């Protein structure tokens, strides 16, 4: 009888562990969502993360501008979220549809309007202003704003992490795009073929800066994501690199 009780206890523990590991209702966070950028999302290009043309950089139309409460001064750039309309709170939902979006922009606060009437992105609201094509997958157009549920998920990207080197001889401004896994970056280091590793700092959005003279040197990067995963991209840019060029080693986070 005791062994039977032990087996039942082990089974209960196993079920509890599986339940804890599987995503469920407890993983979803409530917020609200509007849309911008037009039916082709052309108005979403550029943005506070610095990704520029979202078509050519691979982000497409499944993107969102985050309210300051989510954007975290640019630290959330590149993060991926599953978003669905909260059917329990609105009749303007497209039932059962979940869309995955990437954070590419900031939805700024508008303190001239109240939080519940136009100031949708005012703190402390958790709000996403989604690219219109993505929003229309989950909401009925005429609604304009819908209650949403969202959860952060790993990003899946094609090809490797990309590094675009801008700036000048004593100021490298490196835009890092197409980041998989956690999507968002916590720290970056840079190294020339004649230097040691040097810490970079976030300039704005997904742009990281260094004040080193690296002309004529092959450049390597070490990127650490917000989940702690780290990759080193050795000799990512060859010694004859030029400003405005984009480089990749093909390596990617998973």
Description of the molecule:
This protein has three helices and 15 strands. With 254 residues, it is mainly β. A hairpin with a 2-residue loop joins strand 11 (201-204) and strand 12 (207-210). The chain has helices spanning 2-21, 68-71, 132-135; strands spanning 29-36, 63-66, 80-85, 98-106, 127-131, 146-153, 162-168, 171-177, 185-192, 198-199, 201-204, 207-210, 219-225, 230-237, 245-247. The strands form three sheets. The chain has a six-stranded mixed β-barrel. Strands 11-12-8-7-15 form a five-stranded antiparallel beta sheet, with no helix packed on it. Strands 10-9-13-14 form a four-stranded antiparallel beta sheet, with no helix packed on it.
Show unreliable segments: 1-23
Multimeric status of the protein: single chain
Structural Rg: 22 Å
Secondary-structure element string? HEEHEEEHEEEEEEEEEE
Describe the structure concisely for a colleague.
The chain has 254 residues and is mostly beta strands. It is built from three helices and 15 strands. The relative contact order is 0.17.
Give me some keywords for this one.
disordered N terminus, 15 strands, single chain, mainly beta, 3 helices, elongated
Structural topology:
Elements: H1 2-21, E1 29-36, E2 63-66, H2 68-71, E3 80-85, E4 98-106, E5 127-131, H3 132-135, E6 146-153, E7 162-168, E8 171-177, E9 185-192, E10 198-199, E11 201-204, E12 207-210, E13 219-225, E14 230-237, E15 245-247
Parallel strand pairs: 1-5, 2-4
Antiparallel strand pairs: 1-6, 2-5, 3-4, 3-6, 7-8, 7-15, 8-12, 9-10, 9-13, 11-12, 13-14
């Amino acid at each position: 009888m005791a062994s039977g009780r032990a087996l039942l206890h082990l089974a209960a523990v196993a079920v509890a562990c599986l339940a804890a590991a599987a995503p469920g209702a407890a993983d979803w966070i409530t917020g609200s969502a509007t849309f911008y950028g037009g039916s082709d999302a052309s108005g979403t290009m550029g943005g506070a993360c610095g990704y520029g043309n979202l078509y050519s950089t691979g982000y497409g139309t499944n993107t969102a501008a985050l309210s300051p409460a989510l954007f975290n001064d640019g630290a959330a750039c590149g993060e991926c979220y599953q978003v669905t309309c909260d059917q329990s709170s609105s009749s303007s939902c497209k039932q059962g549809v979940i869309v995955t979006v990437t954070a590419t922009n900031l939805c700024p606060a508008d303190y001239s309007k109240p939080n519940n009437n136009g100031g949708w992105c005012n703190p402390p609201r958790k709000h996403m202003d989604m690219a219109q094509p993505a929003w229309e997958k989950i909401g009925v157009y005429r609604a304009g704003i819908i209650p949403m549920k969202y959860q952060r998920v790993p990003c899946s990207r094609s090809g490797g992490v990309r590094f675009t080197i801008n700036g000048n001889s004593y100021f490298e401004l490196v835009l890092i795009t197409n980041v998989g896994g956690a999507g968002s970056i916590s720290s970056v280091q840079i190294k020339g073929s004649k230097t040691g590793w040097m810490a970079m700092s976030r300039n704005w959005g997904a742009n990281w800066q260094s004040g080193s003279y690296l002309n004529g040197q092959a450049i390597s990067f070490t990127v650490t994501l917000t989940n702690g995963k780290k990759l080193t991209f050795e000799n990512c840019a060859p010694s004859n690199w030029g400003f405005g060029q984009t480089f990749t080693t093909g390596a990617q986070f998973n």
